[in-house]
Amino acid sequence: MNVRTPLAALTLAAAAAVAAPPAGAVDETKPSPSCYGLAFTDKKGDQSSAAPGAQQGGRENLDLLGGFYKYDAAKADQATTFNVQIADLSTDIPGGATAVSWYISYGQAEGDSWLRALTDFTGVVSYEYGHFTILPTGTVQSVRDGSTQGAFFEGPDGVIQIVYPTDGPGKAGTTHKTATITAYEARQVLPGASPTPIKGGLLYEVDVAATKGTFTVGAPCPATDPVAPAPGAEQPGSGTQPLNSGGEPLPVKLRTTKVKASKARKTLKLKLSSSETITQLGAQVKKGKKVLGKGTLARLRGTGTIKVKLGRKLKKGAYQVDLVGTDSEGARRFTAAKLRIR
Asked: Are both 207 and 261 inside the same structural domain?
């Protein structure tokens, strides 16, 4: 993150907690391609973006290299996984960004499924799955069905492993068609911001790839070793989804909207309220893309206060507060609010 030690230290504990998979959950060590071979390959260093204001390159944790399916009947509800290979995987978030997502989409027709791994500015990593539905207006809507398990194998040639739930896309006999894999960062934008937010956030798409052929859950391994597919052409603009997939923004309201400059020196105390219990709550205060302070709160129920440690005294003016937390259904949700230092 583009913040100095006092701010970066706030996320060390959270990042350490997700650096290795929990005991008994998916693979204990970084997985390698299974007997099904590689489902896709992608050229190293080809990350780019056509989104307005995006920075080009330099994000190796978003640089797709390849991906593969695994199936192990002995793992019961963790039998099927999709594994995305990344040039240099980490939970680092570009300065001013809200989250980074690695997203697998099987089309956008009625009932088509998707999975994703997501990390945000607190360092928490979450895994979820869902489907698409078509509204009467013809608009495609992404619907979150629930949380799933996963593992985050950080470092060079890292791997993100996502479990296909057996009551959803991991059901035995389910055939998955071609998937689009998208790695992107998102920056939460306040209403009325310019340029106009796309799908709830200003998305900077960085790398896109697609699988070749189909995969049937539980299918036997091929009789001959599969040939690795050649890198496919990128498809800018496809596969992304809003941060709050299939749901409303984080139900947390910033009660402290104005603060005297004399009270915005080393620590900024912000009062919050919520309509439901929120856990793993995080806040970051920023000006433009520059993050000036961060704070965490383990639990918010009703009202509470989050303490944001600042890297420097805040000057008079307008700022943005990004908020993220886990709701009662285990979904990681986001919102943003205005803050004025007077």
From this structure: no
